[in-house]
Amino acid sequence: MQLPASLALFIMVAAPALAARPFFDEPDTGLETFLTGEGSTWEPGTLPNLRDIRSLADFQFAARQVLKGDHYAYYRSGAGQEGSMYNCGGPHSTY
User: Which residue, among 29, 38, 37, has the nearest Cα to 56 in the 3D structure?
Assistant: First the structure.
């Protein structure tokens, strides 16, 4: 079965657009909405107050505010590597 040309073109154009949202796997905890709400003094690119952080995802949001893109990517990839290190059955699996 061959796709119609218009559908194929739509898929080629839509795929990058749908993938353009970075860090899609972070849940929306409402921290950003809270921080940018009325009466807030928080500025994007700065750390939020620790008392406003409620979950691990909020720590990720805070880290993304102050780390450069490549530094944040390194920080984010560390947790995934640790999990695969424990699951691989290699020398680290005893930890």
Answer: 29
- Which one-letter DSSP state was computed for residue 23? T
Domain boundaries, the chain: 27-94
Q: Which tokens in the block code for residue 37?
A: 């709400």
Two structure tokens written together for 55: 């979950």
Rounded to the nearest 5 percent, the helix, strand and coil shares of the chain are: 60, 0, 40
Kindly give the confidence (pLDDT) of every residue in the chain, 95 residues in length, as a single tens digit, with 9 standing for 90 and above.
Answer: 676 778 777 777 776 666 655 555 677 888 988 998 888 888 989 999 999 998 888 988 899 899 998 888 887 777 555 555 555 555 555 55
Q: Rg for the chain (alpha carbons), in Å?
A: 19
